[in-house]
Amino acid sequence: MKLLYITNQICGAGGLERVLSIKTRYLAEEFGYEVHIMTINQEGLSLFYNFSEKLIYHNFNAEGNTLQYFLQYLSGLRKVVKTVKPDIISVCDDGLKGFFVPVFTGKPCKMIYERHVSKKIEATSDTPTFLSKLTEDIKYKLMHVGAKKYDKFVVLTNGNINEWKLDNILVISNPLSFSPEKTSPLNNKKVLAVGRQCFQKGYDRLLKSWQKVSHAHPDWKLEIYGKINENEDLNALAHDLKINTTISFFAPIKNIQEKYKKASVYVMSSRSEGFGMVLIEAMAHGVPCVSYDCPHGPADIITDGVDGYLVPNGDIHTFADRIVKLIEDEPKRKEMGKNAVKKTQLFAPDIIIPQWDKLFKSLIE
After folding, report:
1. Which residue spans traverse the membrane (predicted)?
2. Does 50 reside within a domain?
3. How many Å apart are CA 204 and CA 43, to the nearest integer?
4. Residue range 327-345: average pLDDT?
5. Cis ω on the peptide bond leading into residue 217 (within 30° of 0)?
6. pTM here?
7. How many folded domains does the chain comprise?
8. Domain range for residue 261?
9. % of the chain beyond a pLDDT of 70
10. Are 93 and 70 contacting, i.e. CB atoms less than 8 angstroms apart?
11. In the predicted model, is pLDDT for residue 345 greater than 80?
12. Are residues 39 and 10 in contact, defined by beta-carbon separation less than 8 angstroms?
C-alpha cells in the first residue's frame, strides 16, 4: 500500500517530527508500506531526528506574498499527489490550509487528517481581545467545514473528541519514542522541562512556581531544553524573580535521553497540548512528572498521585507544592517513578502502530 504524508517540514526538533520519524519507520520497515513524505521549503535542511532510509521525499518551494505562496503550494501539492498516486493521504498540517487538502486535490483517494495540537494552540494571551476571539472563531468554523471532508479525523486524546465533535473522529495516541534500558536513579538534584519557548508552553508560569521551589531548596536546579525565543524574555524574568542562579536554558539536543536519565522530576507547565509526548518520554525513564491538567493530553497519560501529579491549569502555588513534595519525599518519588515506567507500556509502538495499520486497511477494504 502506498501512503503519502503531507506536512510542512520535518527537519525541526518538535513532537510532530519525532512522532513522524517513529511512525513512518515502523510502517515502512515492519509493515511493508511504501511511504512518501511531502515537504515545503526543506531543500538543503538536515533532519533533526533519524528517519527511515526507505522513505521517499517530495519537496517543493513556495515563497512570496500570501497569494503567491498559496498558488505555489496548490501547484506543488497537486503535482506531488499526481506523481505519487497514493492509496491513502494523511495530512499532518495544523494550519488552515491543511484542512482543505481534499478540496485542493479533488480527493483522489482516501484521506486522513491528523490533529497534533489542541485548539488552544492559537492562544497568545491569557486575556484575548474581542477581535482575536472573533478571528479564532471564524478560523475554527472553517476548520470544521474542512474536517468533515476527510474519511477519518485522528486526534491524540479523548479530550480532543469534545473539542471537535465530529462523526469521523478517532483517537490514536502517539507512540513512545524510545524504550530506555536504564531509568533515572532519581538521586540528582535536577528538575527537567523540554519544549520550545513560546506562550503555549507556559514557562513564565513555571518560573513563578520555581521561585517558591528554589526558595525552599536552593540546591536544586531547573533545566529547560528547547528552541530559544528571545521574545519570551525568560532570562529577564528569571533575574527579576531572583532565580537565575538555579535555572538554565539550553537549545534542543538530539540525545535528550541522557538528560531524562539525570533528572529526578519532570515538569510540564503548558497552557495547552496536543498530547504531551515529553511526559511519556520522561516516564519511560522512570521520572515522575508534575503537569498542569491542560487541554489536552496530561489527563490521558498521568494518573494523579500514582505515577505523577496533575495540577489545576494555572495554579502556580499547587504546582510548586507538588514539585517540593517530590523533592522532599524520596520514597514517594521512586514509587511514582516505577509506576510511570509501567504506564508507558500503553504507548509502546507495538501497541500504537498496529492501530494505524488497521485504520489504513479498513479504509481500503
Report:
1. none
2. yes
3. 35
4. 98
5. no
6. 0.91
7. 2
8. 190-347
9. 99
10. no
11. yes
12. yes
